[in-house]
User: Which sequence fits this backbone?
């Protein structure tokens, strides 16, 4: 699974499966599901992402992850001074 954010267009794409999308369906304003040739969901596109979701934090919990790769990190705008219990010491 890959999360890709385009700052210029403010679009977040979540690739669930590495397959080609052949069809998309808007399921909410600015939120699209991408489907492959077998009608399986392969991705989620969120337009105007900063308006719809909190882009400053990503939490992973209880996922069977073999590899966690962070390839690029953009500086976040602090929206709260609350300290996270998960922050490294």
Assistant:
């Amino acid at each position: 699974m890959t999360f890709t954010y385009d700052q210029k267009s403010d679009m977040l794409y979540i690739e669930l499966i590495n397959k080609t999308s052949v069809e998309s369906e808007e399921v909410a304003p600015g939120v699209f599901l991408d489907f492959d040739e077998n009608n399986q969901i392969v991705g989620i596109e969120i337009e105007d992402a900063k308006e719809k979701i909190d882009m400053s934090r990503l939490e992973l919990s209880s996922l069977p992850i073999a590899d966690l790769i962070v390839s690029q990190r953009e500086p976040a705008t602090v929206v709260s001074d609350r300290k996270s219990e998960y922050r490294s010491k």
Q: What stands out?
A: Confidence is low (pLDDT under 50) at residues 78-89. Residues 1-76 form one domain.
